[in-house]
Every structure is written in structure tokens, then in C-alpha cells.
Design brief:
The chain is mainly alpha-helical and 169 residues long. Helix content is 47%, strand content 7%. This is 2382_t:CDS:1.
Length: 169
């Protein structure tokens, strides 16, 4: 973890004088200011090429080319999911993005991530039915991506690394 923190500090170009990485109890990792900021002060700037956007995904020389060939066309959510999964599976290259993916939580407390036992507490409610529908939609979306993309490109998407759980990262 210390290596990841060091890479992030270098990437953010934080010298420790007025910003530092912090672990917050409610949101986990973040950046904390060490001095008072006034309204409209710029805290840090992130180049657009470092953001997780469809433009960045589509302009990637490897996965962008692949995404352009998928039929039917992928949705914005699917493009971002494929981009994240591609980065997660890369053995080399994409160092900065791989650091970010490694810092993503492996579990969430949101109701969509509840297992069947945890979801029973909501049984009979509108939330229960919405979550069931959403889980089915995620499953259907993953199956479509799996059939239309992942199975056809096992060199980019090693099958042992891509399950429905991976799709939820």
C-alpha cells in the first residue's frame, strides 16, 4: 500500500506542504488540505487524459480500437466498464490507471451489493423489487458484454479474470 501511496503522491505532485493523502473513516482514501482555502482556490488539477471518460477509453490505441468494432454499439456505462476491466487485466503498461484500479474498494455497503441474505431485510418493499430488477439488468448486461466482446478477445480479457463480480469491480 505504501508504494501505491507514493505513486499517487508523485502523480498528484504533492510535496506535503499543503496537501496530503488521508484515510477518512467514511470515504476511505482522499486528499486533505493542511491550510485554510478560500472559495474558488484551486486545490489540484487533473489532466483530462487521466480521467475515466469515454473519450479517453475510445482514444486508447488498444481498447479504443476494439470498442469501435463491437456490435451492437456499447452504452456509455459499458464502455467505461470495459475500459476499467481492460486496465485491471493488463499485465504491463497503464501504470497510473492500474494504481487507481487497485485503490478501488473491493466491497460496498450500497444495497445493490447486498447478497441474498442481506437483501431479505428489504423483502416486500419497493427497494427490494428495484434491487432485484437492477441485479438482473447487471447480469443481462454482463452476459451481453461477455458474449459480444470478452469471449471473442481472450488475449485482452483472460476469461479467468472476468466474472460478474469483476463487472461490479
Amino acid at each position: 500500500m505504501k508504494i501505491l501511496v507514493k505513486k499517487i503522491l508523485n502523480w498528484l505532485n504533492i510535496d506535503g506542504q499543503w496537501l496530503q493523502l488521508e484515510v477518512f473513516s467514511d470515504t476511505r482514501h482522499g486528499v486533505k488540505t493542511l491550510q485554510f482555502l478560500k472559495s474558488h482556490n484551486v486545490v489540484l488539477t487533473v489532466p483530462g487524459s487521466h480521467l475515466w471518460t469515454i473519450d479517453v477509453a475510445l482514444s486508447d490505441p488498444v481498447i479504443g480500437t476494439v470498442i469501435h468494432t463491437v456490435e451492437p454499439l456499447l452504452s456509455v456505462d459499458d464502455i467505461l466498464a470495459v475500459f476499467l476491466l481492460f486496465i485491471k487485466s493488463c499485465e504491463i503498461g497503464y501504470d497510473g490507471r492500474q494504481v487507481h484500479v487497485k485503490l478501488l474498494p473491493i466491497s460496498y455497503t450500497t444495497s445493490i451489493c447486498f447478497n441474498d441474505e442481506e437483501l431479505k431485510i428489504c423483502a416486500g418493499s419497493l427497494l427490494y423489487h428495484l434491487i432485484q430488477k437492477l441485479k438482473q439488468q447487471i447480469s443481462d448486461d454482463y452476459l451481453q458484454l461477455f458474449n459480444n466482446l470478452i469471449t471473442k478477445l481472450s488475449d485482452l480479457f483472460p476469461l479467468e479474470k472476468f466474472t460478474k463480480v469483476d463487472a461490479l469491480i
